[in-house]
Each structure stands twice: as structure tokens, then as C-alpha cells.
Amino acid sequence: MVRTRVPTPHGEVFLHLYHNNRDGKEHLAIVVDPAQLNTPADEEPIAKPIRSKSLDEVWEGENSEMDRIIRGAYRGRLSEVGFRASSPHRSWDAFTNKFGISVPAPLVRIHSECFTGETIGSMRCDCGEQLDEAIRRIAEPTSVTLPSGEVKTIPGRGAVVYMRQEGRGIGLLSKLRAYNLQDLGYDTVQANLMLGHGADERSYGIAAAIMRDLGLGAGEGSEDIRLLTNNPDKVQKLEAAGVRIAEQVSMVPRTWRCQGEEQSPEPAGTPASDAAARLRSAGATLIGASMTRGPELEKYLRTKVLRMGHMLSLPPSDSAGNA
């Protein structure tokens, strides 16, 4: 329905808002692809642009170029002095870069909305941290080697498909009730079941349709993707929906990656200290680029690993005591 440029601490992204005929919700895609800002005068991109097919179509009732501009169907960068509407006739399906090299598959995360974790910084889950980490990792530049032997750095590219499936699909009301059950000692799986829900009621058909529209992992001419997740059920359901996954990429909680940093701080200027500083820099969501931590979060993370089969190794101090 609309696409717009949004500057973030991790660089510029394009936010797409989708309507669908299945659940009536407005789902989103956060697309990281600096090639979107290229103009026809710029050199051909080294990687295929991540472009919405439905966005570039001519819609019924559109009478002017400005109609297309307002909904985001443009190429390059909008400015007060000029703009250029996109053409529905240009297809990137058969794209090949002029360098004749392969580039890493786009990195994609399917992320479910979490009001508590993303908006008020709840430490019952790591959702706010995961959303920030996903955008940061997708935006990281990568290096490719040209046939000449020259190493070329290219911008990161991919997308976060943001699904309005609060509380693993049970909705905000039931999720908050489940929190009260968790205070009584039940884990997140037990609480959902006690409320008459499944442990995970999310579906991924709409997410697959969004990815197909963007040319990511599904549909003719699309690229295979690297999927950023620890959840084997998500991998299976996306593959069943026709999404081609070249690689599953793990998301390790920051507090586990930086475990022991406070007890054994690295000298300033070392790679370890530089990495820790980057994690503490500005980021998206209320949590930003800081670490989420606390006993309730640790219980939640252990439940995902031990009860829901997430592909994630517990820290050494946890794995022994919770085997």
C-alpha cells in the first residue's frame, strides 16, 4: 500500500506496509537495500535490488505521476527539487551483475510484533533486542572478490518481515494474562496452554506472500535467502509455504555473547572491547543496542531452547544446571 524511506541508527531503510485478504491486519516489511536510492544515472547495482512488484504496478484510478510518488513508487531519492516515478515495465527478475560474481544471499528475518518488548522494554523476552539486532546485522556490509582479485565492499541487504502476531499469535490480551500465570511459576508454553491456546499459533503464509512480492526466497526470479532465526518450526513452515532457504543463521542473545565482559573487561582498542562498544551504541527499539538481561529473561530463553527446540546452545553455566 505504501513504501517510504526511514533513517535509522543502522542506516536508511524502506518501510513497506501491506494489506491482505486473509486476516485484515497491516503487516510490514523493513527493507535494507541501499541500491533503492540509486538513480538511472548511477552504475548498475552489483546485487539485485529488493523491489516490490505490487508497488511498481500501475494501480486503478491513478491519474498522475504524483499519485505514484505519494505511495512510494519511485526510483532514486525523493527531494524538493526532483523525483522520478518508477516504471512498471522494468523487471529485475533476470538481473545479473556486470561484475559476473555471486554475492551473499539476502539476510531475512520474520519477526513477530511484541508491544511489551519493543515499546516499553520488557525484560520478559528478548524481542526488542532481536529486532534491533536483525536490522543491524542485515545492514552490515560484506566483502566480495572480483574476477580481477580486487576485494569490493558492498552494502548489506535483506529485510525484516514484521508480522502483527503478538504473543506468538495469541494476541496482546492473552499474552498479558499469560504473564500473570508466569508470575505464578508457569513457563510461557504452559501459560499459553492453560489459556486454551497452542504453544505457538503463528502462521507464515502471509509472510511468504510478502517475500514473494519482494523477490525474496519465493516466486519466479526470486533469490534464495539466509534466514535469521533459531526456530526450527519457523524454518519448516516457511519451506512448506514455498520459501527457499539457503542457510539458517542463528541469533545469539547479546547477554550470552558478552557473558563475563564486566568481570574481565578487555583493554580499550582491542577487538573484543570494540565489539562490546558497538553493541552498546544507539539502536532501534526502546532496548536499542544495549543488552536485555534478568532472571525472567533467562527463564524465557531456556524455555525456548529446552521446551520449544530452538537451535541455540545454552551458556556453559546454564547447560549443566538445566540438563
- CATH class reads Alpha Beta
Q: What amount of the residues lies in strands?
A: 15-25%
Shape annotation: globular
CATH superfamily name?
Answer: GTP cyclohydrolase II
| Range of helix content | 25-40%
Read across the widest sheet, the strand sequence of neighbours is 1-2-3-7-4-8-9
Mean pLDDT: 81
The ordered string of helix (H) and strand (E) elements is EEEHHEHHEEEHHHEHEHHHH
Q: According to CATH, what is the topology?
A: Rossmann fold
Pfam family, one: GTP_cyclohydro2
Family: Belongs to the GTP cyclohydrolase II family.
Enzyme class: hydrolase
Catalytic activity: GTP + 4 H2O = 2,5-diamino-6-hydroxy-4-(5-phosphoribosylamino)-pyrimidine + formate + 2 phosphate + 3 H(+)
What does this protein structure show overall?
This protein is α/β, with parallel strands linked by helices. The protein has one domain: Rossmann fold (3-Layer(aba) Sandwich). 30% of the residues lie in helices and 15% in strands. It contains 12 helices and 9 strands. The chain has helices spanning 53-56, 65-70, 115-119, 127-139, 172-183, 188-194, 205-214, 232-240, 254-257, 271-279, 295-306, 316-321, and strands spanning 2-8, 11-18, 27-32, 107-112, 142-145, 151-154, 158-163, 225-228, 245-249. Strands 1-2-3-7-4-8-9 form a 7-stranded mixed beta sheet, sandwiched between helices. The chain has a two-stranded antiparallel sheet with strand order 5-6. Strand 8, helix 8 and strand 9 (245-249) form a beta-alpha-beta unit. The longest helix has 13 residues, at 127-139. It is globular and about 60 Å long. The termini are far apart. The model is unreliable at 260-266 and 319-323 (pLDDT under 50).
